[in-house]
Amino acid sequence: MDGWDQLAAIGDPRAIAARIIQECNTFNLSALRSDPFGTLMRSTEITVTIEAGLVNTGCGGGGYYRPTPPTIHLHPATSRRDNFTLLHELAHHLQQTHDQWGYTLIDMDALIRRKIEEAVCDQFAAQILMPVGVTDRHDVSVHPADVMAGFFARTRASRAAALQRVREMLPQGARWILAVADLDGVVSTSASTYDDPPPPKGFAQEGFRRVAVEAMDAAVRREFHDGIEYRTGAVLDDLRVEAALDCEERYVFLALRPTTTNGSGTWTFPAQECSNPLCEKVFQPLKSSGRCQSCQGFRCPYCHRCSCSAPDRPTTCTSCFVPYTPAEMASGKHECF
User: What torsion, rounded to 10 degrees, do the Cα atoms 93, 23, 28, 154 define?
Assistant: First the structure.
């Protein structure tokens, strides 16, 4: 089968996707790279159907492929996200209709087939959207944040796709934590190449906000003493950070690596101080009932308040300067001595 049996035995999605791209003669790959949506909409071989109410199937993130007739059902998101989804679903079509690889897929166990077919689809989309140059291969081990920003600037790929492309380009054994955050430090996507976990998505990192401010002026290369905070209250420290602002100046690409000799960050578990001025007790996060969904602050195990539920009126009488009691704070009544 001209090497397809060997590719199937090895099971390397990158190599399989590269071979499918090499043998593809039904689509203009340059056109797919520059305008995936327009190219596929004009195609006579496959139909793209836009369905705003499409339920997320988990395949490609925002769509799915049906072979009869060949159709990509797209749940539209942002244009860059749609580009990856469309190429991912196109790869299902190219794999299943390939005169050799298609039969190899049919002979596979269903679970194994799904796993490898999905992985090949991701690789196909990544390789079409973000071809890797010699400079990229050299820089990725040294300045992965710059490479992520470069992919986003010169291609039609999303920020998340750029991060995943860099993650899979990093050499085996490399220890990097990759993230994309908005200018307020809120993480939109992240990944780790080793045991230390990535920063949680949708969670604001004060350290990332400070790095984003610096990145507005120039690329960042420095030690990162703020640490990465996790929802449990744990903080990962002893890291270096590099960061590059995206070309739209709306998000920052970050890459962090450990500075310790054992190649891992240092875990700390800082105590929290209650934000209620009538309480102000110090407690360990594990004693809290959890974070508030609004302010993300830990609820105090003593007064059961967080920062957004703490009283905002004065805590001391402006006439007699005597602190209000909890009962007086609750009732709003106070009599001076």
Answer: 100
